[in-house]
Amino acid sequence: MRPILVLVVFALISLNTLSQPNIPTNLALGIEKRSLDSKKEFVFKPNSMLRIKTKIGNRYYSKDYTLSPKFIVMNQKDTILFGDISKIQGKVYDHTSDKISGAITVAVASPIAAFGLLDFVVEGDPGAGIVGILFGVITNAGIRLAGARKFRLSQNCNIKTIEQ
Predict the structure, then answer these.
(1) Which terminal residue of the chain, N or C, has fewer Cβ atoms less than 10 Å from its own Cβ?
(2) Domains of the chain, residue spans
(3) CA atoms within 13 Å, Cβ hemisphere of 15
(4) Rounded to whole angstroms, how far apart are CA atoms 128 and 113?
(5) Is residue 127 within 8 Å of 116, Cβ to Cβ?
(6) Residue 138: how many CB atoms within 10 A of its CB?
(7) What is the DSSP code (8-state) at residue 45?
């Protein structure tokens, strides 16, 4: 009697395991961006912060997400279809030239902005204030270039899963 019971329990566990959906676990989230003459592909790094805004305005932030071929599950409870995503932001692989140029831009522009604004405050020179503000804007652009990439999904931008 005992061997039959063990065999039945083993059979039920095996059937339950085999009936699980076959979703590959080595999927990565990718963005395909097309312009008139070229096509670029960006792949998000796994286990990094991902920020998503849907078309109806809901926002999701998480490092804990699961991918399937048609949707993403955030925080183990929110299922978001790829078609419902309007903006997505996160760290991507490669593109080190963008990060290096952003760091160089910040290193060059921020001291000029600081000295321009300091000269404006101390001596009241409006030209120095304008230069300080302009280089402050350039510093902000360099920080954005060196940070996480943000994509607005539209007609020229697709989101998809990529097997690694």
Answers:
(1) N
(2) 23-92+148-163, 96-145
(3) 6
(4) 9
(5) no
(6) 17
(7) P
Q: Which residue has the tokens 């998480």?
A: 62
Residue 112 CA to residue 131 CA, distance in Å, equals 8
Mode of pairing for the β-strands spanning 71-74 and 78-81: antiparallel
Question: pLDDT by residue (tens digit) across 18-39?
Answer: 555 555 467 888 888 887 777 8
Q: Whole-number mean pLDDT of the chain?
A: 81
Cα 116 from Cα 129, distance rounded (Å): 6
**Residue labelled with tokens 């008139």:** 36
- Whether residue 62 contacts residue 74, with contact meaning beta carbons closer than 8 Å, is answered with yes
38 or 124, higher pLDDT: 124
For the chain, count helices (H), then strands (E). 3, 10
Residue 17 tokens read as 């395991």
